[in-house]
Amino acid sequence: MKQKVEEKIIAPKEIIIGEANAKVLLVEYGDYESPETAKANEVVQQLLEEFEGKIGYTFRHFPQTKIHQRSFKAAEAAIGAAQEGKFWEMHNLLFKRLRNLGTTSLKGYAREVGVTSKHFLDDLMNSKYGWYVREDQSEGVQAGVKDLPAFFINGIRFEGKPTFHNLSAAIGTALRSRKKIKQAA
Fold first, then answer.
1. Has residue 6 been placed in a domain?
2. 59-82: per-residue pLDDT in tens?
3. Spatial CB neighbours of 43, under 8 Å, sequence gap ≥ 6
């Protein structure tokens, strides 16, 4: 008799780009249909380059489903891609295609970034990763997230416009600080 193996799902908070054990962890809550979050994603790319080896970054899902009906499924698709190590590729592609996030498109994007699972569409249709999106949303609400994008640096809410200049100044201050990293919001 074949024994069923418990599948380990990689949750969004476990997906860190940059230096995982860095002194500074940048956490962003965002929505794949939000033009402001897409713009902030470009800033994050610059920050990761500027502070290479010095910071870690993680994206947490906060779909604003009242105004962005497709953002929740897009977040699930990103988590699905993460199961094959393709989160960041999918993440960046979703922002480039934020106006076209229907389920069929999401399946095509997954293929485009190299996801090979034959179950990707079924997982998406059955909301296999929906709980993880809801968990991100819940933690965002607890952390006081209302407007997007919302950034936290070492667990402290970043206030201000998320421009490269403003965020890099805040990261620079955190790097000079003697405090050790707190767990992300």
1. no
2. 999 999 999 999 999 999 999 999
3. 162, 163, 164, 167
User: In terms of residue numbers, what domain contains 26?
Assistant: 12-176
Is 17 a member of any domain? Answer: yes
pLDDT digits (tens, 9 = 90+) for 43-59: 999 999 999 999 999 99
pLDDT in tens, 9-22: 899 999 999 998 89
> Nearest-5° angle of CA 89, CA 129, CA 107?
50
Number of domains in the chain: 1
**Mean local confidence (pLDDT), 157-177:** 95
Give domain status of residue 182, yes or no: no
Report d(CA 93, CA 88) in Å as an integer: 8
CATH number of the domain enclosing 164 = 3.40.30.10
Is the pLDDT at 2 greater than 60, yes or no?
no
Q: State the helix-helix crossing angle for 35-50 and 164-176, rounded to 10 degrees.
A: 50
